[in-house]
From TrEMBL, chain B:
It comes from Rhodoplanes elegans. GO terms for molecular function: electron transfer activity; heme binding; metal ion binding. Pfam families: Cytochrome_CBB3. Keywords: Heme, Iron, Metal-binding. InterPro entries: Cyt_c-like_dom, Cyt_c-like_dom_sf, Cytochrome_c-type_DH. This is Cytochrome C. Residues 96-184 form the Cytochrome c domain.
C-alpha cells in the first residue's frame, strides 16, 4: 500500500489508526459505524480537554527558517522516480505528487524533472543567450540584458510527451503520481521570444528556429517560426522566484501547449534557419510509432487530458459512506478547458464537474465533483473537453488509431476502481 | 521590408504610444505587447492598425530595436554552433573509416552500448532491429528507425560519450560515426571513407516512414459535437487489467530521502 509510511512521526494520524484497525479488526469491522468513530485521528494528549505543547511554548522565531519548507508532517509530499524506467538517474524523470496538491499552481520544489544529462549548475554571471543564423544582426544577451526587455507573466502547463507512456499496453503504475505526474503548472515571468527575434531582425526566408540547452546533453529541438512569434516565452522566473536549477536556471523557454521536451532548459542558443534540423529529440525520440511501422513526427501539441487526483491509489477514501469530494485537473494544449465530465460507473453515465479557480489558456484547470457515496464499488473517470470541441478519448479509442507503440501522447481517459473499503487502484475496464 | 521589420515597426509604434503616457504607464503598456493574439504579423500588415498608431509614432519616434544586448562575434558563434542538418549544413571538417572507428568505439562507447551497438543493461541499442517496427516489440535503432545519418553525427558530437560530451571531433568523430553506420549495414566496406564532403550522400532506409503530425485529420473523430452523457455502455464495468497485478510501482519509503 502506497500510503503505509505516510505518518512516520508525530503520533498517530487518522490514516495510520485506520491502517491498524484494518490489520487488527479486519476489513469487515471497518464497515461499521463504531469503527469509523474510533478512527478519529490524533494523540489524545494534544486534544481537548488537554492543552498541547504548542499552546504553551515558544516556537521558532522569524528567519530561523530563512527559506521556508513545508511542515515536517508533509515529508511524504515529494517527487518520486521509478528506478527501473531508465538506465541512469541523469537521463531520467521524477514525478510530481499530483495527489497531494490542489488548485492549479505546482510548488517549485515539486515540479517534475526530466533531464538528459543531469542538472546543469550555471553561474548566472556566466549565462549567455546567443541568437544567430538568418538574422540581420546576431546577438548575445546576458541575464541582465534579458531582464531589461518588457516582461510578461503567464501560467502554463508543461507536460512531458511521455506522460502516461507506461500505460499504453494496460494499467501498469498503481499511482496517480506515476501515471500522470510528468506535468507541472507554473506562473512564468519572462520576455516574449518574439521581442528578441525582432531585436535581431529575422530574415524573410526564415522558417524554423533551433533551440539549444547549455547542459551536456546540449538538448536541441526545431521550433517553427510561427510558434516562436506567437506565444513562446524566454522565462527567468517561476512562481515569482528564479527558476530552480532542475527547471533550467537561469533561463528556459516556454512553448505553451506543446510537449515539454521543447521547453529547452538552460537555453544558450537560438539559431534561425529555413528548415528543421531533424535532431535526435525529434527523430529517434519524440516521434510516435504507429501500428503499421510508420511514425508521426513533429507531434507538438499536447491534446486535452484530465485525471482525478483524489481519490486515487495514493489517496484512498477513508470516510466510508457519505459526502465525498472528487478533485482533479484538466488541461489542453489547444486552448482553454471548456468542460470536464466525471463518471462514477466507468463511463456509463456522466455528470458535468465544477471548474473552480482560474481557467486559462494552455493551463491546468481544477475541477471538483461532489457526490454522496453509498459505499459501493466505483469506477471513476474524468473526461476533458477543450474550447476547440476536442473530447478526451478513451485509451481504447486512441489504441484503435495508433496501436500501443507510440510511447508518447497518451491522453486516454484514466479509470480508478474504488473498492467498498475505499481502496483505489488503477484499472482498465471494458 | 522584411516580415521581421514589419513586426518591429508595429511593436515600436505600440511602445511609442506607451512612452507618451508617462514612465509608469509605459511599463504597463509595453508589458501588454506579448498579449497580442496569434497572427500579429498579419495584423501588422493591415492598414487600420498602422494608421491608428501612426500619430503617436510621429510624435515620439520609437527607439527600435531596444538596443539591448550586443552583437555576437563570429568566433563566439563558431564555438557554440555545433548543429548539423540533413543537407550537410554544419558538418565539421574531418574524415574517417569504420575500421578506424572500431577501436575508438570499443574504448569510448562499448561499456554502455556494447561492442556491436547491441547495448548493455538498459542503455540504448544502436544497431539491429531491422524489420521490427510494425511488430509487437519494435527495436528502434539508427539502422531500423532513424531517418537521417546527420542526426548521428550531430548527436554524437554534442552529447556523447555520456558524461564526456563534446570531446569528439574531426577524424575521430567521423570514424566513430562510420563504425555506427557499418554496424547498421549502411556502410558495408570497413575501409570506405566518409567525410564532410561525402556525408550528405549517406542515406538511411527509414526516412520515408516519417510523416508530419496529422492528428487533426486522422483523429478528427475526437472532436465530437456532444459526447454521450447517459447509458453510454451496457452492463456493469468489467475489469480487464489492474496495475496492482503487475506490481512494479515504487512504494513510499523507497523514494529519495528528504532531510
Amino acid at each position: 500500500m502506497l500510503n503505509k509510511n505516510r505518518d512516520h512521526d508525530a503520533g498517530l494520524s487518522r490514516r495510520s489508526l485506520l491502517g491498524k484497525s484494518l490489520a487488527l479488526g479486519g476489513a469487515a469491522a471497518l464497515g461499521t459505524g463504531t469503527a469509523a468513530v474510533a478512527a478519529e485521528p490524533g494523540n489524545p494528549q494534544n486534544l481537548p480537554p488537554n492543552v498541547p505543547e504548542w499552546s504553551k511554548t515558544l516556537g521558532d522565531g522569524v528567519a530561523v527558517r530563512a527559506y521556508g519548507k513545508p511542515s515536517k508532517h508533509e515529508a511524504n509530499v515529494i517527487r518520486r522516480d521509478v528506478e527501473w524506467l531508465t538506465a541512469s538517474r541523469e537521463s531520467s524523470v521524477s514525478f510530481t505528487p499530483l495527489h497531494e496538491l490542489d488548485g492549479i499552481i505546482t510548488p517549485n520544489g515539486l515540479c517534475f524533472e526530466r533531464h538528459h544529462s543531469g542538472i546543469a549548475e550555471l553561474d548566472p554571471n556566466d549565462y549567455r543567450l546567443m541568437i544567430h543564423g538568418l538574422v540581420d544582426k546576431p546577438l548575445m544577451f546576458t541575464l541582465q540584458d534579458l531582464e531589461r526587455f518588457p516582461r510578461t507573466n503567464r501560467i502554463y502547463f508543461a507536460e512531458c510527451a511521455a506522460n502516461s507512456g507506461m500505460e499504453w499496453r494496460g494499467a501498469q503504475m498503481n499511482a496517480c503520481q506515476f501515471t500522470h505526474g510528468m506535468i507541472h503548472n507554473v506562473m512564468y515571468t519572462g520576455v516574449p521570444l518574439r521581442v528578441l527575434l525582432e531585436e535581431a531582425g529575422v530574415k524573410t526566408n526564415a522558417k524554423w528556429l533551433l533551440l539549444e540547452g547549455a547542459d551536456s546533453a546540449a538538448m536541441t529541438r526545431s521550433l517553427p517560426l510561427q510558434k516562436a512569434l506567437d506565444d513562446c516565452l524566454i522565462a527567468f522566473r517561476m512562481n515569482g522566484e528564479r527558476l530552480r536549477p532542475e527547471n533550467g536556471y537561469p533561463v528556459r523557454i516556454c512553448v505553451p501547449g506543446w510537449e515539454a521536451n521543447m521547453w529547452v532548459k538552460w537555453l544558450r542558443r537560438i539559431e534561425v534557419g529555413d528548415q528543421p534540423w531533424h535532431h535526435r529529440e525529434e527523430t529517434s525520440k519524440y516521434t510516435d510509432l504507429l501500428e503499421n511501422g510508420k511514425a508521426r513526427r513533429f507531434t507538438y501539441v499536447m491534446d486535452a487530458k484530465s485525471v482525478i487526483t483524489n481519490p486515487s491509489p495514493q489517496a484512498p477514501l477513508r470516510h466510508k459512506k457519505g459526502f465525498t469530494v472528487i478533485s482533479g485537473i484538466a488541461w489542453s494544449g489547444r486552448g482553454k478547458i471548456a468542460r470536464v465530465d466525471v463518471s462514477l460507473d466507468g463511463g456509463r453515465n456522466w455528470r458535468t464537474a465544477r471548474l473552480d479557480g482560474p481557467v486559462l489558456d494552455k493551463s491546468m484547470a481544477r475541477f471538483y465533483a461532489e457526490f454522496d457515496w453509498n459505499g459501493q464499488e466505483l469506477f471513476l473517470q474524468s473526461r476533458a473537453i477543450d474550447e476547440t470541441g476536442y473530447v478526451q478519448p478513451t485509451k481504447d479509442e486512441l489504441r484503435k488509431v495508433r496501436g500501443v507503440n507510440s510511447v508518447y501522447h497518451n491522453n486516454g481517459i484514466q479509470t480508478w476502481r474504488v473498492s467498498p473499503e475505499g481502496e483505489v487502484e488503477n484499472v482498465e475496464i471494458a | 521590408m522584411s516580415r521581421s521589420r514589419e513586426i518591429a515597426v508595429l511593436s515600436g509604434m505600440l511602445l511609442a504610444v506607451a512612452v507618451i503616457g508617462g514612465a509608469g504607464f509605459a511599463m504597463a503598456q509595453s508589458s501588454k505587447l506579448p498579449a497580442k493574439p496569434p497572427g500579429k504579423d498579419a495584423a501588422a500588415k493591415t492598414a487600420p492598425a498602422q494608421t491608428a498608431a501612426a500619430p503617436a509614432a510621429a510624435a515620439a519616434p520609437a527607439k527600435m530595436p531596444f538596443g539591448i544586448g550586443r552583437e555576437a562575434k563570429p568566433e563566439e558563434i563558431a564555438g557554440w554552433d555545433i548543429d548539423v542538418r540533413p543537407d550537410g549544413q554544419g558538418l565539421p571538417p574531418g574524415k574517417g573509416t569504420a575500421r578506424k572507428g572500431e577501436d575508438l568505439f570499443v574504448t569510448q562507447c562499448a561499456a554502455c552500448h556494447g561492442e556491436f551497438g547491441e547495448s548493455t543493461g538498459r542503455w540504448p541499442v544502436l544497431a539491429g532491429g531491422a524489420g521490427t517496427l510494425a511488430s509487437h516489440d519494435p527495436v528502434k535503432t539508427i539502422g531500423s528507425y532513424w531517418p537521417y545519418a546527420s542526426t548521428v553525427i550531430d548527436y554524437v558530437r554534442r552529447a556523447m560519450p555520456f558524461g564526456n560530451a563534446q570531446s569528439l571531433e574531426g577524424d575521430d568523430l567521423y570514424s566513430i560515426v562510420a563504425y555506427l553506420l557499418y554496424l547498421n549495414d549502411v556502410i558495408t566496406d570497413q575501409d570506405q571513407e566518409i567525410s564532410d564532403k561525402s556525408f550528405p550522400t549517406v542515406k538511411l532506409s527509414n526516412e520515408a516512414n516519417f510523416f508530419d503530425d496529422d492528428r487533426e485529420v486522422s483523429e478528427k473523430a475526437f472532436w465530437k459535437k456532444e459526447p454521450c452523457m447517459t447509458n453510454c455502455a451496457a452492463g456493469a464495468p468489467k475489469v480487464l487489467g489492474r496495475a496492482r497485478a503487475i506490481d512494479v510501482t515504487p512504494e513510499d519509503g523507497k523514494g529519495p530521502r528528504v532531510e
